[in-house]
Amino acid sequence: MIFIWAFIVGGIICVVGQLLMDVGKLTPAHTMSTLVVTGAVLDGFGLYEPLIDFAGAGATVPITSFGNALVHGAMAEAEQNGLIGVITGIFEVTSAGISAAIIFGFLASLVFKPKG
NCBIfam families from the entry (predicted)? Predict the structure, then answer.
């Protein structure tokens, strides 16, 4: 059943993003920023973790999870290290994902030839 909920929740997040671009006429960059901020705000209010517990990968794979990770890391480090922890927590939690995106993007550029 967890796979069905992951599919439904992830699909709803993607539909919201697509509606922002199609109906709201937002650019992909504005849509991505909106979804990241939405994930951050939901985590700030403590609503994103229950969504992750409910939907699993359906909530952790979309871009909203990046906003969640930013706030989650900042809050956790702020409790331990104070104000400076806000800055270090953001980089500590998200560094693995960003590094992976850079590495895999580079590897893909070696394998595939872009058009244009």
Answer: spore_V_AE
How many other C-beta atoms are found inside a 10 Å radius of the C-beta of residue 72?
A: 22
For the CA atoms of 58, 53, 48, 91, what is the dihedral angle to 10 degrees? -80
Cα gap 108→110, rounded to integer Å? 5
Q: Per-residue pLDDT tens for 30-86?
A: 999 999 999 999 999 999 999 999 999 999 888 898 888 888 888 888 888 888 888
Q: What are the sequence ranges of the domains in the chain?
A: 2-111
Q: Are 16 and 35 in contact (CB under 8 A)?
A: yes
